[in-house]
Design goal:
Length: 291
């Protein structure tokens, strides 16, 4: 799939336009913004409008799903954000990994000046209010539930289910404002659209699932060949393209239909599902030096 095939991919339902307005109108209610990104796609899963929408509010970045991202790559991204003055933490919101560092980093780093000023003014007991933002399916609800120790936010494994804002009170006098997932009006960078489709942030219905799986297999063969060999027993030949790799996976998994033809649709679904669940190993789709 080349850029000419990708140029019409857009994802901006009406509720996302509403969310953009909601973020701007509620910004004055919070002290900082917590932005959740997918550790596998830290830039592609970042809404480029977020800087302007949050208008200079202190921000902390949570690189979620770090358990399925390449650990060495995640360290590079943390350094990359740090070099730009942004505190970034690797977390896994489903298991809770890394979340104990969130509040200390927030108080001692991101909001250090505010906390100092409150102490000087005798307002140390004032609540800390944080807006939680991120694209659909990046893990905001899992983050809030983990932090609150309850099932406050509805969690569903499909893009764009949180439709309204909600306040969630934590211990230590902290309040989180959960905002609906928001993407941007158009994909100027179609490579980002493909990466988001790999991770499931964009509905599979937007892209042809077999073509998507072929592109993922080519990426894996070039960057993580051991993941294909270990999971499927597949090694890429020099002239293998996406179709050849997909057929090899289908053949190894016994997805052969009448006439010896490979059920490539079934193989594509398997590849994407197993990538998203981490069964192909810890994989990161983009690095800072590529950007």
């Amino acid at each position: 799939m080349d850029n000419t095939e990708m140029k019409n991919i857009q994802w901006f339902p009406g509720h996302m336009a509403k969310t953009r307005r909601m973020i701007k109108s509620n910004l004055s209610l919070v002290d900082a913004v917590a932005e959740l990104l997918d550790a596998r796609t830290p830039l592609s899963s970042r809404n480029p409008e977020m800087d302007s929408m949050t208008s200079g509010k202190p921000r902390i970045v949570l690189l979620n799903k770090c358990d399925v991202a390449d650990e060495a790559s995640t360290k590079k991204w943390i350094s990359w954000f740090g070099s730009r003055g942004i505190t970034a933490l690797p977390v896994d919101c489903k298991s809770g990994r890394g979340l104990k560092s969130f509040l200390p980093a927030l108080k001692n780093d991101v909001l250090r000046d505010l906390m100092k000023k409150r102490i000087e003014n005798g307002m140390s007991g004032a609540p800390i209010r944080i807006m939680v933002v991120g694209i659909p399916n990046v893990g905001k609800s899992s983050f809030i539930n983990r932090m609150a120790g309850s099932k406050r936010a509805k969690v569903e494994d499909r893009p764009g289910v949180t439709r309204t804002k909600q306040w969630v009170k934590l211990e230590n006098n902290v309040e989180l404002l959960d905002m609906p997932g928001v993407l941007w009006p158009k994909f100027d960078d179609q490579k980002s659209a493909v990466k988001l489709a790999f991770t499931g942030a964009i509905s599979d219905g937007i892209l042809d699932i077999e073509t998507l799986a072929m592109k993922l297999l080519v990426f894996l063969s070039e960057n993580y060949p051991d993941s294909l060999k270990n999971r499927y027993g597949v090694e890429a030949a020099e002239d293998d393209g996406g179709l050849e790799l997909l057929e090899k996976v289908g053949r190894r998994r016994g997805m052969v239909i009448s006439g010896g033809e490979i059920n490539t649709e079934r193989a594509a679904i398997t590849v994407l599902d197993e990538f998203r669940s981490g069964k192909l190993g810890r994989i990161t789709l983009e690095l800072p030096d590529e950007e």
